[in-house]
Specification:
253 residues, 13% strand, alpha+beta, 5 strands
Length: 253
């Protein structure tokens, strides 16, 4: 004859007690380790920011008035040497996060792609030095896949990487106040009047980029200069032009 307690009830009670004790132990362990894990994550993030922008002393997190889609954190160097912005965009396997450091001159100092779930051997190459290093020295200006050396066989991951950096660029321009006036809102007459204050090459670059919509590969063919050089030259010319437009300096040279 079966013993109901020993055969049915007791095993259920024992199992329930084991589960309860295990849950309590896990909760206690989590309470102990969670702050340590969080602290280590903060230390790692701070160390990465410092490595990307060595000229910075310490950082303060900035709360933007208007959040930029994809941007998860903005840190400003306390000695005004630049910003480090974390952003992400949807890739093949999930979000592709990146930290982008901008120096005081408004150019990208360095980028560091963080852990992601992209395909090993393909999308994961966004974390390679060869891919990351190409962004150093680029101006804080939106770019497309045609402007960079994308990863062969990983178009989605490359596009996500570009989108994440572009989000960081947009946030930087907003926070640093270097976006300047939207040249596309000016009439051709207003734009040409202001362009007369610039050097001939700078004037040509802005006309070809803003009015004609040419990419840097086309500009390189036209002017016989490297695309990277023309990108930087255009960015500086646009900042100079925006400043003169702001001051109302539309004069002939």
């Amino acid at each position: 004859m079966k013993n109901t307690w020993n055969d049915f009830v007791k095993p259920i009670v024992v199992l329930g007690v084991i589960c309860l004790v295990t849950s309590l132990l896990l909760a206690v362990t989590n309470n102990v380790t969670a702050p340590i894990i969080a602290e280590n994550a903060v230390k790692t993030a701070n160390a990465t920011r410092q490595a990307l922008l060595p000229s910075a002393d310490t950082f303060t997190e900035v709360a933007p008035e208007t959040p930029t889609e994809g941007v998860t954190a903005i840190y400003k160097a306390d000695n005004d040497s630049g910003y480090v912005i974390t952003a992400q965009a949807k890739g093949y396997g999930g979000e592709v996060p990146v930290m982008v450091a901008f120096n005081a001159e408004g150019t990208i100092e360095a980028v560091q792609f963080l852990d992601n779930d992209e395909t090993p051997g393909l999308g994961q190459k966004v974390k390679s030095e060869a891919f990351q290093s190409q962004f150093s020295g680029m101006p804080a200006e939106e770019f497309g896949l045609s402007d960079i050396d994308a990863i062969t066989g990983a178009t989605i991951s490359s596009g996500a990487a570009a989108s994440a950096i572009n989000a960081a660029i947009a946030a930087y321009n907003q926070e640093a106040g270097v976006a300047g006036e939207d040249l596309s809102t000016l009439s051709p007459e207003e734009l040409r009047a202001a362009l007369n204050t610039l050097a001939p090459l700078d004037r040509a670059l802005i006309l070809e980029r803003v009015l004609d919509g040419l990419d840097y590969a086309a500009l390189a063919c036209i002017h016989g200069r490297p695309a990277a050089y023309l990108r930087t030259r255009y960015h500086r010319a646009k900042k100079q032009l925006a400043q003169r437009l702001k001051e109302g300096e539309h004069y002939e040279v």
